[in-house]
Design a protein that fits this description.
The complex is a heterodimer of chains A (483) and B (485). By secondary structure, chain A is mainly alpha-helical. Chain A is built from 21 helices and no strands. Chain A has one domain. Chain B is mainly alpha-helical and 485 residues long. In chain B, helix 2 runs antiparallel to helix 3, helix 3 runs antiparallel to helix 18 and helix 12 runs antiparallel to helix 13. Chain B contains 19 helices and two strands. The chains are: A mainly alpha (483), B mainly alpha (485).
Amino acid sequence: MTTIPVSFSAIGPEIILLGTAAVLLVFAIFLPDEPARRLSAGATVIALAAATAFAASQFHDHARAPFDHTLRIDAFGQSGRMLIFVAAIIAVAFSWGMGHLRERGVEYHALLLTATAGMSLLCVANSFVTAFVALELFSLALYVLVAIETDDLLSLEGGLKYLIIGSVGAAFLLYGAALTYGASGQLEFDRIRAGLAAGDHHDVLVLMGLTMVVVGLGFKANAAPFHMWTPDAYEGAPTPVTAFMSAATKVVALVFALRVLVTAFPRQSDVWQIGLAGIIIASFVVGNLAALRQANVKRMLAYSTVGHSGFLLTAVAAHSALGTRALLYYLTVYGAMNLGAFGIVAVRERELGRPVLISDFAGWGYRRPLLGIGMLICMLSLAGFPPTGGFLGKLYVFSAAVDNDQTYLAVAGVIATMVGLVYYLRVPFALYDGDAEAPAVSAGPGFTLIAGAAGIASVLALVLGIIPTPIIDLARTASNSLF
Amino acid sequence: MTTALIFLPLAGALIVGLLPLQRRATEWLALAVALAETVLGAIALIGFNTGGGIQYVQNTRWISDFGAGVPIRYHVGMTGLSLFMVLLSAVGIAAAIGAAMIAGRDRSRAYLALLLLLESALVLLFTAQELVLFYVGWEAMMIPLYVLMGQWGGEGRRRATFQFVVYTLVGSLLMLVAVAVLGVTAHTFELSALTAHPHESTWLFLAFAAAFCIKAPLFPLHGWLPSAYRESTPEVTALLSGVISKAGAYGLIVFAVPLFPSVAHDWRWVFLGLGLAGLLYGAIVAFRQPDARGVVAYSSLSQMSLIVIGIFAFNSNGVTGAILQMVNHGVVSVAAFLLIGLVELRAGSDRFRVLGGLANGRPVMSTVLLIAALWALAVPGSGIFVSELYILIGAFQQQAVLGGVAACGIVLAAMYMLRWYSELAHEQDGETVSAETPDLRVGELAIAVPLILILFAITAYPWGVMQRVTTSQVAFDTPSKVQQL
């Protein structure tokens, strides 16, 4: 029995985040509510910034597989980590001054750190065991975060649905891992590929395992038809949590999906590409058609994330370095525009003190001009208008699909985009409805911070479309580390 | 130069939109930006080398490696056609801003900033030499347009905007796929490189052509046109009809046909047939319209159909005529719609039922209206007559029957434009027209007269336009030397 050498640098971000969470839980208990909340928010941001810096410092290192191949530390994983950390920082800003957290501030931030740590680990997981541990770590933390407003029935309902359906998804993934282990005798992704190389590529056991894995991934990436939890969880969760989930879980699910499919099952790509194509088209149809009928902005955006899963999975299905770059670029833009949109919804929510309907934005663009422009940018970007990042992301994904002879996916994506315009543009139309009068209401404490963070995110969605080269260069480094 | 033309209005839009100036100051600032753009355009015109080619080029890296080693470049420059389209945009926007000042739009800061934003996008799309850049300009043009249509205008503006959004986006998203496919398969988005190795795909051609023909619009894709032209403010309608419809024709001439020459040639009869149908249908419907805008709106459909016929005649006479007609019709319809706007300011309506007798005691106004009407009906001797003649010659060269039917269609223009003028200026005084209804004021003349002078200038010297554009139609058979009339 050989001992496995421990590489602390490989799990540096997780150590920082979980360590901070532990310290907060132990010591902040002794402080009164308000200082404890402020302290934990500050410590969370510092820990996340440190973790980001840590991941960035290793970005250009050679890829390595520490802990006996159970992790793979490469630029691809690090870029996923950094996206998640930045999303978490913005989520902390969003939750500043959130009324319901008064007595649960410490727990809230500790759970956020735990979820982030789990996601970070999943970004670099190279074995089904590590992956499952990481998955459950962040999922459990998120179940609680969704239901953290314990006196709100919607929040509890969302958390419960997420818990049950999320567990089904995890079970699929676990079953798939077991079947794959049965077929290959291995749990690490690169060894699975080697283990499967010898036998029949389309062995029933392999295909069953692969199917289960894809279904499990579909649940986590909230792609149709595995999206049932999405609208309720997104609607019920406190809006800062929704913002974080929409951006970060999508990043981690897609990064992990690409890694496992490309590393473990490259020879079965003909099978999983077909499977993904089905999921993609289902996501386009369900996400966009259901979003048309929503009056509640959070539910509409929830269905829109289902639709966007289709675009993101199109990049995965391309199974190429180009697709990987498209995926990372799209994820960056996607995070920015969703955080911006949900953040601005959170501002309006605090003004009204109740869930926000699209009609609640009527005339609001004149009342708060800068936030109105921010929301306009986010909606145009989600809808895919140039010169926003959303447009370039779509073009990038379409290029990847065309390059991989999957033009039909690009065409399906364009049709989805057309339908998407109808509901995305309803928001700007409401914002600048000259006939409606939106009375001035105070948003309460924390307005500057939350509005500022949302504004930065939405400006980013625009800037990424005009100056995309830095991100594309980083994405190239990342995709080279994988292929 | 080109870059300055693109970014000057953009900078102007930001300054106008964000500086909290007084209403008057905002308006004069916006007008100053628009006039500066026009002057810049005029300087470009003077410095333009009639020898042809793409001039005032700027070509730098924008996105290093997009897709499979395909770079996206910021490559702008002007052919003769681009130059005149840019000038048309500059003049159109300047006139529209002037008209908006007279009409006094509410929330003028946003209104004028959006007009300048629209100008920036238009110039970008008319000068882009790169497919993605062109698409960016094409879509960026829509955003201010949607807001301008949806926020300012008549009662039914929301419905009109919705129709417009759906029609135009269906077209432009199809084009987006085509752009991606073309770029990835050819490993470049550069226009010159793509036209050097033409593509054979029918689907891609139709995707491009659909986007352009919806914008033009070509019959039967004009469903958005009547309500959009009626419900928008006169300035926006003037730009839609005068400038933005030309973006569709520009796309056909510069992108759809040169990128897929053989496919376009195979499909020419479809476009010629639709063009003829649109020419006759537009003219007949225009004659039956109960309001001044409706007449000009459907005449616009008719004239754009004529331009499409010129393009798909596939010879240099046809396309030269089409280009000259784009410039002429652009100026005429901007003038016509802005004049209707001035009539509406006085009468509060553009329905013929309540109008009439404007010529009675209002000599300046009736003269200006008459000039616009005469030019719109292509009176022999006018610049428009020249361009329509070229299109007809091109049509005859393609097929005599085509030319014959098209000629009949052109005659119909005289019917509806003369009716337009007489319903406005002659007949009994309408119930909204009284002796106190004022003639054109100095400020209003300052908008109308420059437009008319431009029409006179083209009439006097059409060769000035044609010699600069004849070299920009590589795809249209062997560019024979065009004779000066």
